[in-house]
Amino acid sequence: MKTILTIARKEFELALRSVTSYIVFVLFLVISGVFFATTVFKVGLAEMRGVYGFMHLLFVFFVPAITMGSIAKERGSGTMELLSTMPIRLSHVIWGKILAAFLQIKTLIAFSVIYFVIMLVLGEGMDIGAAIMGFVGLCFAGAAYAAIGVFASSLPSSQVLAFIIAFAISALFYVMRFLLVLLPLPLVRVFQYFSFEHHLANFMKGVLDIKDLLFFVAVIVIFALLAEFNLQSKNMMQER
Amino acid sequence: MIEIKSLSRNFGEIRAVDDISFTVDKGMITGFLGPNGAGKTTTLRMMVGYLQPSSGSILLDGMSIFEQPMVASAKIGYLPEHNPLYEEMYVVEALKYMADLRKMSKAGYTARKAYVVAKCGLQDVQYQKIGTLSKGYRQRVGLAQAILHDPEILILDEPTSGLDPNQIIEIRELIRSLGKEKTVILSSHILQEVQATCDRVLIINKGKIIVDDGIAQLDNYLAEYYLLHLELEGENIDLSEFVDYYPEVSVIEEEHEGDIYKLKLKVSAGIEVKHDLARFIAENGWVILSLYTERKSLEEIFHKLTKEAGSIELAAYAQTLSVPDQEPMEAPAVLPVEDNAEDIETDSEAREEEAR
Asked: How confident is the model over B207-248, as pLDDT tens digits?
């Protein structure tokens, strides 16, 4: 556990020092801010659901950008060799990376507190519980995307490829909702469980369902295990 | 102590390490020598547990690195081949990170950090970013990282590459002082380096160990003779009487300008004639201006060894073609062994120049 925290802290500190993460932060906040402004001031709805939903969409683009370097960079620069000869477990490295990415995402969405405050001041009869639960749901979805991103980053040693793979997997989970229309009814029941949107919807309403919680936890654990398995098999069969 | 038993590793079709066995004792520095692509790095990577061997076993103080990785890897300090480091981190920060990953105590870290920074000469750069450091300083940071936790076993892959001559001397001294209590194994393709640092040498070529011996012995039994360079002053200098007395000695070069004579003597290995020679010269009333011994360098020995391995293959090659024995000597360019030998030569020459 201590190792995970050590790795996560180092990753997070380095991320806060790099220009790239500030560019990512600014872009994310500008885009979501524009969206917030339109829903609130034009439509006049005193709820966070719109902006949270939009942030969820942005995750598909931004989380892969945050996680793409996590393992690919270590492998590219060779520091993975150093890490794998330390008395630490591979899973510690992966969980540390996921935790670091999650902390970044949390920092990112923590800025949405400003929107919440604006809403409190200007709006009337706002469902505060739904707003808080929506934030929690978004955190879980963000962590799931982070796990997907770290897994994708463990596949190639190039960051660009890692980004594309993470984007593809994340997008699949995101667009699942829109694909459901095309499926026959019995399949819809099954596949809607894989849609992030479907599970987030409950959070947005202010409902905490153990099913949704379990879904996100399962996604995180599965992708963390896949990443570990992938790295282990690479080490076993490594070619020059 | 490191015990390696019939270790092999394949990369697809290529057999990088081919059934090697050796033991490295505590308090000894072992040099792992070989041309590029001989299997040095592959062997070291297996020793630290980064690569899985195809077959064979590695025991570090009686423990397998693959069965007890957490305990075994805590004993190892490792400097990888290209010395990968976190470029964005500051030197002290990177050291702290390594210490944290190795679960060192705060007090232990503070003490060791001071020692390591002083020993590796990092005082001036400890608050700089690693990415801004020169190659020599990066190498020192790599070494500092490897010895930070005071490991029992130190595995260094080309520790002095990229250092300037003064730094090389410092690092060699550091390695030697560490070697007194620890098990040290270092790889190199520079023979002088191994000669200057190690107690024992393992020469590996094409994944096989071809020599395993102490440094001194190696020099002795492989070199058939050594040369004595003499510069003398006197009239009508003639060493034939001395040479007749010692059948192992012969004059191979002689030239003189007035009273200054320059001679080159060839002496069989294991024979010490300097005292007698000096006495003989003094008795004749001549003056010695200079006298020095030229021993065959490891370079030549190495060259010879790899060539010998090549000539065996040449013979086999000749047989398959069923041509007379003399013939194949003209065909070495086709064979990879010869190419290898050339590589080593140019490579080490380049290294030497760099060192100068």
From this structure: 888 778 777 776 654 566 778 888 888 888 888 888 888 888
Q: Which of residues 144-203 of A touch B (CB under 8 A)?
A: none
Tokens of A126: 């706002």
Domain spans of chain B, in order of start: 2-220, 224-294, 298-355
CB-facing half-sphere around the CA of B75: CA atoms within 13 A: 21
Task: Write the pLDDT tens digit of every residue in A134-147.
Answer: 999 999 999 999 99
Please report the residues numbered 267 through 306 in chain B whose beta carbons come closer than 8 angstroms to any beta carbon of chain A: none
Distance CA A84, CA A61 (A): 30
Query: In which band, very low, low, confident or very high, does the pLDDT at A83 lie, cut at 50, 70 and 90?
Result: confident
With tokens 């929506």, the residue in question is A134
pLDDT on residue B327:
37
Going B70 to B76 to B79 to B85, the CA torsion angle's sign is: positive
Residue B347 — very low, low, confident or very high, per pLDDT cuts 50/70/90? very low
Single pTM value for the model? 0.77
Average pLDDT, chain B: 79
Query: According to CATH, what is the number of the domain B224-294?
Result: 3.30.70.2040
Q: Is B80 on the interface with A (CB under 8 A)?
A: yes
CB B84 to CB A81 under 8 A?
A: yes
CA distances from B143 to B82, B83, B213 (A): 12, 9, 26
Give the CA radius of gyration of chain B: 25
Q: Which of A3, A78, A236 has its CB closest to that of B80?
A: A78
Tokens encoding B347: 């490579």
Tokens at residue B200, please? Answer: 């024992």
CB A62 within 8 A of CB A28: yes
CATH class of B2-220: alpha beta
**C-alpha to C-alpha distance for B329 and B323, rounded to whole angstroms:** 11
Which amino acid is located at B267 in the chain? V
Phi (first) and psi of residue B235, to 5 degrees: -95, 140
Confidence band, pLDDT 50/70/90 cuts, at residue A150? very high
CA nearest neighbour of B209 among B87, B43, B345, B93: B43
3-class state of residue B5 by DSSP:
strand
Interface with chain B: mutation pick from A11, A19, A85, A93, highest number of B CBs within 10 Å: A85
Query: What pLDDT score was predicted for residue B340?
Result: 42
Give the sheet arrangement for strand B200-205, strand by strand. Answer: B76-79, B153-157, B183-188, B28-33, B200-205, B208-214
In a mutagenesis test of the A interface, which of B40, B41, B50, B89 is the best target, namely the one with the most A β-carbons within 10 Å?
Answer: B50
- Which residue in A has a C-alpha nearest to residue B146's C-alpha? A82
Residue A128 confidence (pLDDT) above 50: yes
Among the partner-chain residues A88, A235, A236, the one whose CB lies closest to the CB of B101 is A88
Contact (Cβ atoms closer than 8 angstroms) between residue B32 and residue B186: yes
